[in-house]
Amino acid sequence: MVVRDELSDAEVDRIFAALADATRRDIVRRTLLGDESVSHLAQDYAMSFQAVQKHVAVLERAGLVTKETRGRERLVRAVPEVIQRAQALLDGYEQLWRSRIARLDAMFAEDDEPRRQH
């Protein structure tokens, strides 16, 4: 069964590959707070403007940000919905693991019960 809001494997790969880099995570964080021009973003990193543009392009391909041209500026804006979908995926993994741990705890509790009775 495929849920409409579910991310494809390719989308998940692009999102987490993009977020694997600290600079890109920082760009997402900053653009969640408000639109930022690429030139303004570039001022805060010890890298070239072109390098920051490449980071933004990776984030854009992953769907984590959009870029809009306004006059001479290219404004970058985070896409919270994509981040929320990735968070939902991680929440699903967390629920799966918590369920497995709870089953293991229950199994160990059952094993301990006969020992306590002796």
Which features characterize this protein?
mainly alpha, single chain, Arc Repressor Mutant, subunit A, 3 strands, 118 residues, 3-stranded antiparallel sheet, 5 helices
Describe the structure in brief.
With 118 residues, this protein is mainly alpha-helical.
Structural notes for this entry:
- The chain has about 120 residues and is mainly alpha-helical.
- It has one domain (about 10-115): Arc Repressor Mutant, subunit A, CATH 1.10.10.10.
- The chain has helices spanning about 10-20, 20-35, 40-45, 50-60, 80-115; strands at about 35, 65-70, 75-80.
- The chain has a three-stranded antiparallel beta sheet.
- Helix 2 (about 20-35) packs across helix 4.
- The N and C termini lie far apart (about 50 Å).
Reconstruct the topology from this structure.
Elements: H1 9-18, H2 22-33, E1 36-37, H3 38-43, H4 49-61, E2 65-70, E3 73-78, H5 80-117
Antiparallel strand pairs: 1-3, 2-3
Helical stretch tally? 5
Q: What are the low-pLDDT stretches, counting only 5+ consecutive residues below 50?
A: none
Query: What's the structural domain tally?
Result: 1
Q: What is the second-level CATH architecture?
A: Orthogonal Bundle
